[in-house]
Design a protein that fits this description.
Elements (H helix, E strand, L loop, with lengths): L3 H14 L2 H22 L4 H18 L9 H16 L22 H16 L3 H12 L4 H8 L3 H20 L2
Helix pairs in contact: 1-2, 2-3, 2-4, 3-4, 4-7, 5-8, 6-8
């Protein structure tokens, strides 16, 4: 993980000297998490995930001079990805791309229980609307604090908290009906 100083240094090299190697380091650092986030937003659509991730990094590179450094680069990048997802969204159920959401630390689970767990998460996420699902993924999957989620989604803090609360209730209801 890059320190804030290393991150700022790489960004400065990108802005001052158009250093593509420095931007490549930023891509290497944040690509896996960003792709996981987008993959879950797209419901496991790898092709759409690839397109959105590529477009996100392209837009970040072209616009890096507009990065003000008020938030971490990762937050800015996720905001670009979220906007790109909204611009390219398609309907559909979340049925795959759940490996990261359902990663099970307990190695004592049988493969059947792991599949059942993934199915449960899929059912719970499918009970949510697009905004709720995005917020749940950012908060629980990406460990983003409420303030960062507000920056990424451009929603007020109170709205984010209400959506997360509703999402938890909807997910609990969906899981009880199983």
């Amino acid at each position: 993980m890059l320190s804030k100083f290393e991150e700022i240094s790489l960004i400065a090299r990108c802005v001052a000297a158009d250093d593509r190697h420095a931007f490549g380091r930023l891509v290497d650092e944040y690509q896996a998490g960003l792709r996981r986030f987008v993959l879950n937003l797209t419901g496991g659509d790898a092709s759409q995930t690839d397109d959105i991730a590529q477009e996100t990094f392209l837009k970040a590179y072209v616009s890096i001079r507009s990065f003000k450094g008020l938030a971490r680069f990762k937050t800015w990048l996720y905001k670009i990805a979220y906007r790109e997802f909204l611009a390219n969204r398609r309907g559909g159920e979340i049925v795959s791309g759940l490996d990261e959401v359902c990663s099970v630390a307990d190695s004592n689970l049988t493969p059947e229980n792991e599949v059942e767990s993934k199915h449960d998460v899929s059912v719970a996420l499918n009970a949510l609307n697009e905004t709720e699902r995005s917020l749940v993924l950012l908060f629980y999957m990406e460990d983003q604090p409420i303030k960062k989620i507000c920056e990424i989604t451009e929603l007020p803090e109170g709205t984010v908290k209400v959506y997360l609360s509703r999402a938890r209730n909807k997910m609990a209801k969906a899981l009880k009906s199983l």
